[in-house]
User: What shape does this take?
Amino acid sequence: MGRFGFVAKRLLQTIPMLFGIVLVVFMVLQVTPGDPARQVAGLRASEAELEEVREKLGLNDSVVVQYGRYVKNVLQGDLGYSYKSRKPVAEIIAPRIVITSWLLVGGVLLTLVISIPLGVLAALRKDRPTDHIIRGLGLVGLSMPSFWTGVILLLLVALRFDFFPPGGFGESTYDHFRSIILPSLTLAIASAPFIIRGLRAEMISVMESDYISTARSLGVSGGRLVRRFVLRNAAGPGITLVALEIGYLLFGAVVIETTFALPGVGQGIVLAARARDLPTVQGYTLLFALVVMAVYLLADIIMAILDPRVEIEA
Amino acid sequence: MTDPTALPLDLSAADSQGPLDDRKFWQRLPVKVWVGLAIVLIYVLIAVFAPLLAPHDPLAIDPANKLASPTGDHLLGTDELGRDVLSRLLYAARVDLPIGFLGALMPMVLGTILGALAGFYGRWTDTLVMRTADVVQAFPAYILVIVLVFALGQGAKSILVAFTVLAWVVYARIIRGEVLRIRDLDYVHAARVAGLGRLRILRAHVLPNAINQTLIYLPSDIVFATLALAAFSFLGLGIPPPTPEWGAMIAEGQPFIRTNWWLATIPGLIIVVFGLGVSLIGEGFEERLHG
Amino acid sequence: MSDRILEVEDLSVTLERGGKEITPVQNVSVSLGRGEALGIAGESGCGKSLTLKSIIGLLPPGAIVGGDLRFALDREEPISYESADVHGHGIAIIFQEPMTALNPTMRVGDLIAEGPKIHHGLDRREARERAIELMRLVGIPSPEKRARMWPHQLSGGLRQRVMIAAALSTEPKLLLCDEPTTALDVSIQDQILGLLQELRTRLDMSIIFVSHDLAVIGELCDRIAIMYAGQVVEKGPVDEVFADPKHPYTEALMHSVPSFQQTTEKLEGIEGAPPDPGSFPDGCRFAPRCRYVRDDCATASYALVQIGERRETGCIHPELLEGIGS
Assistant: This one.
């Protein structure tokens, strides 16, 4: 009962948080300089035309009314209309989600493929040369701008092997697959250092913990020790570690999609921001916030399943 | 046989090393800190003396000589507008370094002030500051940076404001914790610290400890701020052209990687070495403080 | 046939700290008879815990153990062993903090069943029954219900009983106790001590009990070894040592009583703090803090000298001691 209670409580906590995020985003963009009506109507519009646009967009209403209307519309799936293309924001965003999902899934998979062995190895070889090399590589990785890593991969890999296109997403599933490898690798190189570092610390703290000594003193060793004592205790924090990276991964997607000309949501928000297209930026921000909240929630639920102690903290 | 009022021998002290002596601290710093400091110093010198070191005006356009390969006159060639790449790289240090440092220092100052206020005054000040901190931390930070930069408009100022609004929380928590710790000592062991003024306690106990702890976060925040500035400029949302900036230079050079590969790669390398230098300092401090 | 179960000879432990080698345990020799309880006392950092961990091979990686460890599982002469040999075979250990010593993601019954599963080839069901049996043996009420609980759902006293049950699951001949009562309330402390005493006679088990609390050692143990700065400074039967300490450090320890508040105040007549393993003084290591110190103490080499029939001291001037009445 306790753990279900925790999950339910956690779900309920998410709702006001979402309203809060929408409110903050809405408020921040309210103070954005520039006249939305002017953007919509164009530079040559007369004052009367501007007034007409304002009335149509509801810009003359108070901020509270505008916020209420925005929330109501969002709940109905209506994110408003782009100032630039006049198309519904939801329609602009939706097709881009698929591409970013490819990138994030590929990026997370490659991150795990890189980080788990290196993190575990560094922990097992703590303070020995292997550990120093892995940590040194981590420091270099942390200092590398991901867009630069992308450019380097383009230069060293894409320009030499036709298999990897230098940009874009292609038409067929096969093309998608080819297109997503280098961007995913770039994302993984950017995020792996954090995961390796966290995993190493977590493994070390689990292996140095008293209950591992207890297990060893009882004659538990080898695979049994790792399975029954180390892994289950390291898994929860490991998942949290990856989940907490989601904001960073999304930002990575923004930069990497621009580098590789991938038409995903990351590239989308940059284009919208450059065009100062407020409703579209708002829509993207809301999407990102939703994703982050959902991932945090998911991680907490998995934690609750893995760690029996969670119920008392709830 | 035993006198219950007798003062006990120290049976509980787990830490037999005692507090760190300031001078010893600096003497025993690992080599990597010195390597890091040397790297950062070179960058600072480049930023300060860029006008003396740069062979050309970083903004001077020469359409007749665009995308030139390295020559004696243009050691790293020219960009698509014929500007000298080396000069632009050197001048860019005057943009990236100050914003990198300020982007980490400003949150630290704000966080220290707010944390100290929360710790000293408690009650509603504490509640206000710490609840705000909770809210800021719950938000996906990087996305808020995009929103803030969008709202405040392109440029160094809005990037700095965005960093400050988001990164002060960690520092506030550290300082508040230290202040509370000392406040407790103040009341419980009043007799022992009698004669010592509050300010002196603050200076002698709160600051050294807090500074040691914040020093661990400062380097990684400098790297974070520098990388983020470069990223925003790369995306066309940061430092507007024609001011030279490393991230923007990578974006400008990317279309020409087939022919002039150095245009996009060298600015990145310069960022990596700088970030590595700062990280080495941070790692060294952390090792020193946490064994 | 021998009545000795454990012999520790000239044990030393070397660790690396901050790129420097330190030897926090040196020249430690103790032995233990079958069914006997030995107490090891000393301040934090004196090496008593490391000594215990060397015996059962739980030192941190990179630690170098010198000297000879000999253990007799059956009624034979003790033979030398490699540290990990005794895991689950004859020696078991319980720790100070039962919360951290129990796997937080394992039901306590499953933890106690690990030993029987691995060493006695019991299947799931038999091992579970064995676990419940052991829980009953260590006085855990309604063991069937509690076996299904997580460590965090139990009180501190019950957790320590679970820890003892897990240790007993491997049927040890020697139980090592690393300050097992320090983290518990006083009334619970007495219960756990009583339980250990009872198990010791019932299961014919030997015990090494490490603590900084002389009163606790006095309650449970036959003999005591006092450690200071990584060395044993005095050994002997508990009542004789308490009645007439032959080392100034023992005397000082007996004067000190941990007050309700853990402060770092020092005993009158004893200056300074225990030395750091990185900088043990030459000569007698206690000399810098000793109220009886003489010139030759600074050059005295370490040796335990027989005093009387069953006692040994590391002090070269035991005749100077005024006794605990002073």
User: Anything to note?
Assistant: Residues 186-203 of chain C form the longest helix (18 residues). The two ends of chain C are 46 Å apart (CA to CA). Confidence is low (pLDDT under 50) at residues 259-269 of chain C. Chain C is about 30% helix and 25% strand.
